[in-house]
Amino acid sequence: MAHATATVDVMRPPAPAERGVDVYNLKLGMWVFLASEVMFFTALIGSYIVLRFGASPNPWAQPGKVLSIQITAFNTFLLICSSVSMVKAYASIADGNVKLMKVWLLVTILCGATFVGIQVYEYTHLIHHGFQPSGYREGSELAELAAANPVPYGAATAGLYGSTFFTMTGFHGFHVTCGVISMTYVFIRALRGKYSQQDHRGIEVIGLYWHFVDLVWIILFTIVYLI
Amino acid sequence: MSWWLPLQGSTFAPQIDGLFIAILIITGLAFVIVEAGLIWFVIKYRGRPGRKGHYTHGSAKAEVIWTAIPAVTVVALGLVSNHYWKEIKGRDSIPADAYPIGIHAKQFEWQVTYPGPDGQLGTADDFTVRNQLHVPVGRNIVVVLTSEDVVHSFWVPVLRVKQDAVPGMTIRAWFQATVPGEYELGCAELCGMGHYRMRARVFIHTPAEFTAWMQQQIQGGATS
Amino acid sequence: MSGIAAAAPAVHAHHDDRSFIRKYIFSTDHKIIGIQFLFVSLFFLFLGGLLAMQIRWQLGYPGRPMPGGGILPETMAPGGVILPEYYIQLVTMHGTFMVFFAIMPLLVGVFANYLIPLKIGAHDMAFPRINMWSFWSAFTGGLVMFASLFVPEGAARAGWTMYAPLSARHDLSGAGLGQELWSISIVLLGLSSILGSLNYITTIINNRTPGMTWFRLPLSVWALFITAILGLLALPVLSGAAIMLLFEQILGTHFFDPAAGGQVLLWQHLFWFFGHPEVYILILPAMGMVSDIVANGSRKPIFGYHSMVFALVGIGFLGWVVWGHHMFMSGMNPTLGSTFMVTTMIISVPSAIKVFNWMGTMWRGNLRFHVPMLNAIGFVAMFVIGGLSGVFMAATPVDMPIHDTYFIVAHIHYVLFGGSLFALFGAITFWYPNMFGKMMNERWGKIHFWLTMLFFNLTFFPMHILGMGGHMRRIYDPTQYNFLKPYQPMNTFITIAAFALFASQLIFALNFILSLRWGKKAPLNPWEDNGLEWTLPTPPPHGNWDRPPTVYRGPYEYSAPQVAEDYLPQAKKLPTDREPAAAPVAGH
Amino acid sequence: MAETRHAHPPYLLIWLYLFVLTVAEIALAFELPFSRNVKLILLLLLALWKAFLVAMFFMHLKFEKWNLRLIAIVPLPLALILVLAVITEHVW
Ligand code: HEA
Ligand code: HEA
Ligand code: CUA
Ligand SMILES: [Cu+2]
Predict the structure, then answer these.
(1) Cβ-contact A36, C236 below 8 angstroms
(2) Would B2 be classed as within a structural domain?
(3) Any idea what the Cα angle at residue B28 is, between residues B24 and B31, rounded to 5°?
(4) Residue B128 forms part of a structural domain
(5) Which CATH number characterizes residue A76's domain?
(6) Under an 8 A CB cutoff, do D89 and C333 touch?
(7) Does C333 lie at the interface with D, CB-CB under 8 angstroms?
(8) Which residue of C294, C322, C361, C388 to mutate against B (max B Cβ within 10 Å)?
(9) Is residue C555 part of a domain?
(10) Is the domain of B143 the same as that of B189?
(11) Looking at the 3D structure of chain C, how many domains does it have?
(12) Band (C586; pLDDT cuts 50, 70, 90)
């Protein structure tokens, strides 16, 4: 419905009967959705915490032994940058600078896509070396290393390590991919001039999703790669 | 067929049944109040033309009463139950002198390991019997439950004992049988298509009988 | 009557030029989506009932060939004799279909979709397209689950609770693809629920019409709101767990595999952390709609509206901290068991408030025993039995002998059939005129109610006695046990009663289907109700209102002294009423 | 609200902040001589700090009203309850 005129602030909801949360539907919907995402990641991350806790005293593979830190540190950096570029895109359009918004949005998409690319590379690399969801593949390079140094490679907990690592990062990667696809869609709409200073709901909402995905990564990076 | 609870065959069966009856009385009272009230209202206030309902939005007093009474009741019930629960299942409730019996559940049988003459599980004189649980009356018994494959549940109705056997865990449950006789042990957790026939016989012996059975097993060199 | 003026339907100016597909298949109209859910989930309800009949046959007449069972595949029921592996599938699929694809979509998919916008005066859901996806996701999930019945090894075989490692390992369960399809289907259903819930929540928060304040919401909407929050936060946990289970099956992960350090109880914790909120998802909407119907049938304001709301919120909140009561015997830490016992006990209190407030509503009313009211009273009467049997199980020592026996099965059916399904019979009859413009037959509705009431109790009450006797759940052949042999006549009795129960349901099915065509044309406000939905023509047009209606009062002003009639619709303006805040600008 | 829309928070500064914290995390994990448990706690705190920054500034929760913030907060205690309850198994 296109009744909204320039005088109506579309970034606020139409005056409700009684002030609800005072945000427009799309944004409220996104926040509500993110609440459910929190619970989804709770199931995955919570299981990881519980399993790792329960596995003690058997040691977990030491950080940096199986997973490459440099490459993920770079990925973390990328994702943080993309969050900033996203929020910059939002700030630009809020200030009325459509062009700058498109640039920042494009930067975000590129960062996100690179992140996914690097993760795919990381996965192939890991699987090649013998790390897979069921643990260290028998006869692989990692399995031999683990047999020789059971403690640093967490030989006894390799199965759990693989299960939780691939499930958590895999679903995070899936979320990033979804984010990149939706941002591309938003970008195309931006090219078509759908967003303005008065109405840039799409930008704000996709931003919320994107920052959430970044936030999850911050947690994952720490608990999966560094601890 | 019994319309009531099975025979009380362990020391805490009377306690559990007592609690059951207490709850039955409390809930029975609530049941009667609600159902009788419904029937009464249905008859008394059935619609008649030209009449209107009594226009009221409620009564704080009435609501406080019917909130407070159930609240007090259930909290009291919780405290009493917890008392028994700690006695029966609390981790430190297992009597120190309890006679250990290892029970290993697998699809679809119970492997019951007795400690042999030394009264200790995990020693060389242990022996294992399939699908038969022999215990003496009047003695504290602790069953040490393990599982080979999936979750099973150790369930002896007359003893009122139920405890899951979980793969990867060692779970202890204790009881003291009081009535000699032959009973049945069933599996109470779905464990596959043979779940329905994962049955064992339970023999509650007098101490003398139990010693005799033990002797016989040791001499017969019975194993699995 | 002066009331009619305000309640008269606004003439709908839009003309509807959507194609058939956009209108009825890929519809974004919340009412059509609700009706889509209705047909699909009634089908699954029927299917669940058919599976139950086979369960009952085997329990009543173990090992005897089932009449008509010859059409089943040799691997499941050679010559019509049910095999143990088929029996487990029956139980698993019966529970799964009933919980996930019948009752939950009936209560939430149908009534949240249908009622929320109508009852709060909105044009549609906040996100109509997401709403459509929510239906199609659930539908696909249902289809996958249905298909799993026909794969070679048959459907999933680990009970609707899918305890690992039985569910995770085909070598232990004997299942095949069916097991994986279960997980996939549940993930799709979870997605559907999440999409639905976020829609309901946003709609209720943001799209209420002027005057529709929080404390003027009908209790059905309140209940659906709390339900949506539960669904929003519980289903993702189930989806996460189902994904882990799926990976366990296809990727060889070790979450629940003790040999590799995994934890068996982890599945149970995740499942019940979802599972208990789930059972409240299955009862809260029923409670809400029963509140609406009881007030209507009693011609009296609901007794204690505010405490009814707080009780809903209380149940919704406490529902998160009781899940351990399903695990008292699981080997979980006993101290944790104590905690869960106390929280479980406390949850009876808000339920008690609700029960007594319904009775308070009937007290000094002017009761009309229309079919919805009968079923609503039936709900109260039966839910209480189920709720009270829950107290036995909540007491940990008493749960020890009755856990995983037919006492639990009796509890399940008293709350789910006696509770949710009775409420649904009432609700469907109540809103049928609004959905289809036709009335369901009153006489057959009453016959159905009384027969159901009778046979329901004959079927499920004796199960308490079986449970007290120690009769385990999910056993294929109770006569294997000497101590259960004496109970066989009772099992046979239950089976006969269950067949009669099923037959009685056919009355409802026929009444439902035949009334679509031959039902009496519905008058505008057949139940003389206060809700906004009755200010529209039946069935309401796409977009509902041209201009949002204005609400002047709460939903339960029956027998108010200001007016001559015994009801006072929310949208009817009395001379004393002031206009609420300015009408909203269209555009969301 | 209107004012905050014009005066944006210093996003680049927050980016720098996050960057420094990430570097600190990596350094802590691999270079600094702390015991494992201290590292664990410090790393978790750093991660939460970063997450908090993202939520507050990038997702502008800092500038929202409480009733919206509530939506973000509601799932957190539930998550905590789930994990803590399951973990107690291994603590007792
Ligand atoms: C709609 C679904 C629904 C509802 C509403 C409930 C409601 C309750 N349930 Fe139920 N439950 C199930 C569905 C439901 N349950 C299912 C499906 C299972 C089995 C799952 C499986 O294993 O397959 C189950 C299993 C189950 C168990 C596990 C049993 C076991 O496996 O050993 C327990 C244990 O505590 C329990 C307790 C309760 C309690 C205390 C309530 C309370 O909410 C009830 C509160 C209501 C009342 C108490 C009545 C009204 C109050 C009064 C009239 C006031 C007076 C009362 C007092 C003074 C006490 N339920
Ligand atoms: C809402 C939920 C629900 C409903 C309605 C039912 C209904 C019935 N259930 Fe079931 N049941 C469960 C939920 C439900 N059940 C669950 C969760 C379990 C546990 C599963 C497990 O252990 O894993 C269970 C388990 C269970 C068992 C235990 C099996 C075992 O442990 O071995 C038994 C045994 O008798 C049983 C019997 C019945 C019977 C006879 C009915 C009858 O009431 C059926 C009557 C028929 C109908 C209700 C169909 C009506 C159809 C219509 C009205 C169609 C209308 C159609 C149109 C208009 C097109 N059920
Ligand atoms: Cu073993 Cu059931
Ligand atoms: Cu429960």
Answers:
(1) yes
(2) no
(3) 140
(4) yes
(5) 1.20.120.80
(6) yes
(7) yes
(8) C388
(9) no
(10) yes
(11) 1
(12) very low
